[in-house]
């Protein structure tokens, strides 16, 4: 059975007026997004959030994380390059977010064959992430199905993980965004699809992490989870498509992606 | 009272002959600058120092820091992304620099609302940093005034922190450089102002950290603190202005900034 | 005695048909390369590996490293920005690789004046790195000769380290690649030389680290060490030369280098 055939799936794309309005709202709010990650792409994440219009902070010290969690408008927990020490800090933050109702995003990067992070990601599910952003392998793994993940890459088509995403969303009460050639976003009931993007995205490390913090920015602006995830995914795909048309390869693609995140015009489509 | 109205303020800009001569001198010395930071922008900092003409090293291991401090020509301590472990190493380094009279720079990044780093930065003041580079909020906080800092950003105009900078410089016996749309540099008596730069600088993480290590490079070449800070700030502003004219957004701005730091011609203005 | 005069030295360059064939083979294999590093250039390393055609993973957690070592096709150990904690993890990985016969590369970055990493690098020699990639100073230091290293830079010409490289290769039973204006590769008997590259490479931090992980990618595709190192060095030099012709400085050089690693055409030279 094709995972998308048993339900209506609404396609969304920039410059859908709702998405344009959400981007404008996010930029006006300039939310403070706390990125908890040991990712080697932390600078790229921060720059992607800044370019899109948010105010990122990648606070690392244990003493500061709790204090900052209270200040931040949203929290993004990214398991790429996780360490044991980092995991403890992440758990504290997710617990605080869960208790206070602050929106938080989980990026279960590269779970599957690596036992430590896989178990840790499953444990975080109990703290009900507002949004989970994952590729198909990671989504299948989180849902308890063998996803065959190979490092941070996936060999599984995103459509094959839609049922798992829906189940996962129902279990956490949140939203799941499955990334791939087509991105799927679901709250367990409604299903959205976003196309576009560019194949060079898979040749730049940290693009997935960057999308995670941008979803966090939309959440931090007070936009509802399904709309926040859909808008961020569509914004990211549009910027990626434009960057891909201009880039000479993955090296120039990365700065051009940031340029186009910055240049998306919220005065166009919404008027 | 306007903070700049009670004193003469000398405007400086590239290609002032003294600044050109200082850049030439720094490039000839190619000083070894030790960057102590956990900043996610450490690579950008190292690349900025390399592009300008210095020889940066971002040594991290506790065992190596002390040994390297003795070799380095200048030490740059940047609190962005500080951890408790890192703080201990930074304190050792600053103590060694203070004892041996080696120039060192303090970048009290994001102090204000975060208690740990704020207290740590205040403690480092006793070790008399040769130069403090800070935005207006951070300068006010260091001087004991509520600066309203929001993460690494500031909402306060640099001119509003000039009096605090002057007091701070008198207290430490060093130089304070307050960054903003206009940058102010003071040794507690003389006041310098540098304009230029580009608004895109605020949309790229780590530009402030990069300026810090470039000031460190001028210090490491044996240039007097007030001249070192003024020259580095003017060089950075000129490169930023040129990059801003060519960039399509914050993504392409960052590599173009490095290009222009590299391409500033010391044979032009001084002849 | 000129270090290259006592032996025949074969010059190699892209698009030598063997090198083109090796790149094609590596891209088809898309080997999983595990980068063990605390390098500030870890993102640049991962992006260089991705651009060239490999699948890099920069796993950091102690618990995961051992598990990942079993999955990875090759392991790259890079001492830039090493810490004591990281050293323990690296030793475990190198030991596992040595025991199971998995290819691994050692990049003894910045050894010489820093005692901790110098002793650690010498200790790793007993685990017989498949390839050592080092500049002249680092090669001399590893061979027990004072190399006069200054941070990660070198003031010694690569040709002056050829005898030391040959002795080192005989001792470890592996291959040594000495980088410089001319790169030399030897297994202790055969000597290869690769020219090209571009002076801007020395003005971008992490280019040496990036070459290391690309050699690791060729090793991970099952290519014999001497051919793997020669091919990677030639591929890197060709991409660097092309990037250097287009770049406006070190800032734009880095993304252009990644573009050209990606764009090297394996259908050209081999047909």
Automatic annotation (TrEMBL), chains A, B, C:
Alphabetized UniProt keyword annotations: ATP-binding, Kinase, Magnesium, Metal-binding, Nucleotide-binding, Thiamine biosynthesis, Transferase
Residues engaged in binding ATP: 133, 179
Binding site for substrate: 58, 206
Obligatory cofactor(s): Mg(2+)
UniProt-listed Enzyme Commission number(s): 2.7.1.50
Domain of life: Bacteria
Functional pathway: Cofactor biosynthesis; thiamine diphosphate biosynthesis; 4-methyl-5-(2-phosphoethyl)-thiazole from 5-(2-hydroxyethyl)-4-methylthiazole: step 1/1
The keyword Cell wall biogenesis/degradation is annotated on this UniProt entry: no
Enzyme class: transferase
Catalytic reaction equation(s): 5-(2-hydroxyethyl)-4-methylthiazole + ATP = 4-methyl-5-(2-phosphooxyethyl)-thiazole + ADP + H(+)
GO MF term set: hydroxyethylthiazole kinase activity
Xref: InterPro entries: Hyethyz_kinase, Ribokinase-like
HAMAP family reported in the protein's UniProt record: Thz_kinase
UniProt record similarity statement: Belongs to the Thz kinase family.
Record's function text: Catalyzes the phosphorylation of the hydroxyl group of 4-methyl-5-beta-hydroxyethylthiazole (THZ).
Name of the protein this chain belongs to: Hydroxyethylthiazole kinase
Source organism per UniProt: Pseudochelatococcus lubricantis
């Amino acid at each position: 059975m094709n995972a998308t055939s048993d339900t209506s799936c609404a396609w969304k794309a920039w410059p859908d007026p709702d998405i344009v309005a959400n981007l404008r709202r996010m930029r006006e709010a300039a939310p403070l997004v706390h990125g908890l990650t040991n990712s080697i792409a932390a600078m790229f994440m921060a720059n992607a959030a800044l370019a899109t219009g948010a105010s990122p902070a990648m606070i690392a010290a244990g003493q500061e994380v709790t204090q900052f969690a209270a200040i931040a408008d949203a929290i993004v927990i990214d398991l790429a390059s996780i360490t044991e020490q980092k995991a403890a800090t992440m758990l504290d933050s997710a617990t605080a977010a869960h208790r206070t109702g602050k929106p938080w995003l989980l990026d279960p990067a590269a779970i599957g064959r690596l036992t430590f992070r896989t178990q840790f990601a499953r444990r975080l599910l109990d703290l009900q992430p507002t949004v989970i952003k994952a590729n198909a392998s990671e989504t299948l793994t989180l849902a308890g199905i063998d996803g065959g993940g190979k490092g941070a890459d996936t060999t599984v088509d995103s459509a094959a993980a839609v049922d798992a995403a829906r189940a996962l969303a129902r279990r956490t009460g949140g939203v799941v965004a499955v990334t791939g050639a087509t991105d799927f976003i679901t709250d367990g009931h409604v299903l959205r699809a976003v196309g576009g993007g560019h194949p060079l995205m898979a040749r730049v490390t940290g693009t997935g992490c960057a999308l995670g913090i941008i979803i966090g920015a939309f959440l931090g602006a007070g936009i509802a989870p399904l709309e926040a995830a859909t808008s961020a995914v569509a914004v990211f795909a549009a910027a990626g498509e434009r960057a891909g048309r201009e880039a000479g390869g993955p090296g120039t693609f990365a700065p051009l992606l940031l340029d186009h995140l910055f240049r998306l015009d919220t005065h166009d489509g919404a008027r």
